[in-house]
Amino acid sequence: MALKRKFTNEKDEAQKLIEQVRQWESSVIQDQQGLNNIVDIFNVAKRQESAEASFVAINALGRIYSALWTKGLLNRTKDSNDSAQEKVGDWLRSNYNMYVDLLRGILKCKEAPMQIGALRLLIQMLEKEGHSAHRLANVYSFPNSSLLAIVEGVLDNANASEHLLRTFAESYINSYDDIRYYFYRNVVKLASPEYDPFKRNSGRKYSNIPGSDTRKNRESRGFADGMPVFVKNAFSIMNLVRVMPKTDITDLTDFCVKLPDEIGETEPSVQSPSAHKRAFSEAWLALLRLPLTPDTYKQVLLVMHKRIIPHMTDPKALMDFLSNSYDAGGPTSLLALNGLFTLITDYNLNYPQFYEKLYTLLDRNLFHVKYRARFFRLLEIFLASSHLPAYLIAAFAKRISRLALSAPPSGIVIAIPMVYNLLKAHPSCMVLIHRMPGYDSETGEQKIAEEADMFVPAENDPAKCMALQSSLWEMETLQHHYYANIATLANIFNEPFHKPSFVLEDFLDHTYATFFESDTARKPRKAPALATQPPASLFRPGDAVGDFMAY
User: Fold this and answer.
1) Which of 51, 218, 464, 499 could cross-link with 223 by S-S, CB 3.0 to 4.6 Å?
2) Is 354 exposed, middle or buried (CB count within 10 Å of its CB: 0-12, 13-18, 19+)?
3) To which H or E segment does residue 459 belong?
């Protein structure tokens, strides 16, 4: 009973406090004499005892400061001769800054609904601040310093939830051209090693603050160890941006801070399509200069060719990043192929020894990696040119065939059509299936075992691996594979090459599950022969259990 009474009393006190907050809010909005009540509401907003009352107070302050921005009481006026009014304005701005800091602190709490609520209020304050400047001077003045604080609070936030990042991207960056433009510019500023948050807050420099040099300050803000938090959040938001830089000024119509009716001779950069494209490019380049985590690195490469390169002002600026990624080896090289191929074909990038590097990517791990299908799609394109030398095509066909011997069935069904298509597109390599392994092609004499296959599998230079002097005996071996479907598929090399080339896409997504599903769904032509002997009794004669039961 005592606990129930205590809970009831706390609930009644919270309700009274909420009613009091609403009265204070009404007095502040209706009469300037009630401005002192802002302090009381702010104290309630900071209280931890009653979450409900604190939530009501935070939203009440949002409505109060929206009204104050509308009335122009938060604007700085240089021509004001009223010292009392100036003091009131300074006091209001000081309290407003404390409220904004409170909202930024809520962004870093661990509850997603509170984060999103704080973000919505911060953007609301941003909009009111921009509109107030517009009414005061009839010029476009986007409050980018306020947006910079919001962007920093979201990106440099270890507790940023997926809902917060998605809301920021979809509700604001995708919706408003000006927020998207200044967001990109702020990413560049925040990613810079010279960025100093104290300059924004107080105009002080690190040299004036003992022990607060750039590196120490950035480490204290979570930027140490490769800035994993900042990089992860920045990429998550930029990857969620679906509105790409526009090419026509008439498409730039959605602004959070409305443009004035008369812009004047100099239009704001937010109205320039080229400025939007430049901001997009600089933001991505600034992000790619930072140390990326392995997961982020792979995700960037996955979207590089579709989401980044086509919208860059100078796609060749990504040349070094993609070249280094291609040289890294392993899955990173496989993922870099798409972007590198786009630069080679569309922007005339000259990559020396491209096919030699591509040849080294063919190893026994290739048929087991997640991005296997993506690699073979590109490989088919790279080897489609009829101008490629025969030794190069033979080297790829031979290496794929050799790897197929130890590959899983899902990889073998890719290798066989791939090799078949290569031979059909390059008839000069047909000698690989006509040459008898183990016999001299001129004398017909049998060779000793060491000289049976001239191919050098350890050689990474396709010009020196001697694949053209070898044969595709691996495909004959696969004709005896334990899985009947693979053996049947490999038999295609015993037939004349009159059939059309395989559509490689049909073979890229096979797994053990798809094999099992197709085999179990297939109806047998006739029932399998089974020899069964029906039991005559529950236990066999001579079993211990049977003897015991008989006893």
Assistant:
1) 218
2) middle
3) none
